[in-house]
Design goal:
Layout lengths: L7 H22 L6 H13 L4 E5 L2 H11 L7 E4 L6 H8 L3 E4 L22 E4 L11 H11 L2 E5 L7 E2 L2 E2 L6 E5 L13 E5 L2 H11 L3 E3 L2 E2 L10 H31 L14 E2 L5 E4 L3 H10 L29 H9 E4 L7 H19 L1
Parallel strand pairs: 2-3, 2-4, 4-5, 5-8
Antiparallel strand pairs: 1-9, 6-7, 6-12, 8-9, 10-11, 13-14
Helix pairs in contact: 1-7, 2-7, 3-4, 3-6, 7-10
Bound molecules: pyridoxal-5'-phosphate.
Length: about 375
């Protein structure tokens, strides 16, 4: 059976009429950039995420960049983050002129290991930037208590964690700021690029609002050196339509993960674990195996597409060699990068497709283990 890694088309077809009507509304209003649809989406998404304010921008990367600037991060500062993430987390720190400082991740949750943070703090440390990887929250109570003790900002990279929860709170509302991406493949995806910063602090929201639109509070009055990081009107309108389905789609991902965990219970693979108190939203359903390449090829041969998130940890990427890290510096991140295999995961994935994946893996395991 053919099982795609993701299928954005099926979802589009299920909401096509609403999406096209929303797009037509924006065209009719000619509010192509920002405008009332974007403003309404900001309020609706912030409220859904448990935060008071939302500022929509043109990507998750821009959200991270502006959140860091709003925390007054710049040259000479250090920001503690993880090397096992998408490169954008590190890149955004670099855009501000600050230095990314990595700490290793937890071998069970794959998120920042709080036990590693304190030894990475220096007099230049200004913020901690945890990533809620694959849709599971990092251990925010531990991270925020270290940050409080040392007077550091906490900015959440929630690009993979729309609707994820930590001890009853939504990701993006726990630290001072949350950064979301609406890249099409994310759990809430635009039909183009998009992002948002969420916060409970009105002053921070105001600051980011000014920065995203050329540092102007009033047209042509530039109080800050700003950017063109504005969200497009059509993306706001489409995201408003899609937000109404996010809860249903999130539950579908969680149900799919449940089916996978049953189908793969005897596979010998390390399966995702939901930490106590967490609501994992399975942006990625990643299994760990030392025989990743072999398993990937066996599944490919059966028409089952898989992915790798991510094959090289950021500290070993050539682009970041100037940070002077080496192989062996973050052993957990390095092992995960060599063992992780992402199985097909999207809300519309059929039970029969999950069974087919389970069966293919069981066949592979029996051959490999005998
Ligand atoms: C996708 C992603 C980003 C960047 O978001 P874009 O919208 O692609 O700029 C940042 N961090 C993480 C963890 C991501 O997965």
């Amino acid at each position: 059976m053919n099982v795609p890694f993701v299928d954005l088309k099926q979802q589009y077809l299920s909401i096509k009429d609403e999406v096209l009507a929303a797009v037509a509304g924006v065209f009719k209003s000619t509010q192509f950039v920002l405008g009332k649809e974007v403003a309404a989406f900001e309020d609706e998404f912030a409220s859904y995420s448990g935060a008071r304010y939302g500022v929509a921008v043109n990507s998750g990367t821009s959200a991270l960049h502006l959140a860091l600037l709003a925390a007054d991060i710049g040259p000479g500062a250090e920001v503690i983050t993880v090397p096992f993430t998408f490169v954008a987390t590190t890149a955004a720190i670099g855009y501000t002129g600050a230095k990314p400082v990595f700490v290793d991740v937890d071998p069970e949750t794959y998120c920042m290991d709080p036990a590693r943070i304190e030894q990475a703090i220096t007099p230049r440390t200004k913020a901690i930037l945890p990533v809620h990887l694959y849709g599971q929250a990092a251990d925010m109570d531990a991270i925020c208590s270290i940050a409080r003790r040392h007077g550091l900002h906490v900015i959440e990279d929630a690009a993979q964690a729309h609707a994820a929860e930590y001890r009853g709170r939504r990701c993006g509302s726990i630290g001072e700021m949350g950064c979301f991406s609406f890249y099409p493949g994310k759990n809430l995806g635009a039909y183009g690029e998009g992002g948002m910063v969420t916060t409970n602090d009105p002053e921070v929201a105001r600051h980011i609002r000014i920065l995203r639109d050329w540092g102007a509070e009033k047209k042509y009055h530039h109080v800050l050196k700003g950017f063109n990081y504005r969200m497009e009107g059509v993306q706001g309108a489409i995201l408003r339509v899609k937000l109404r389905y996010l809860e249903k789609w999130t539950e579908a991902r969680r149900a799919n993960a449940e089916l996978y965990s049953l189908a793969l219970a005897d596979s010998g693979l390390q399966l995702p674990k939901q930490a106590p108190g967490n609501r994992h939203v399975y942006h990625v359903y990643g299994v760990m195996t030392p025989q990743r390449r072999e398993l990937m090829e066996a599944l490919e041969a059966q028409g089952i597409q898989t992915g790798i998130h991510y094959p090289i940890p950021v500290h070993l990427q050539p682009a970041y060699s100037d940070l002077n890290y080496q192989a062996g510096d973050f052993p957990v991140a390095e092992r995960l990068a060599s063992e992780e295999l992402s199985l097909p995961m999207f809300p519309e994935l059929a039970e029969s497709q999950i069974e087919a994946v389970g069966k293919a893996i069981a066949e592979y395991s029996s051959v490999y283990q005998s």
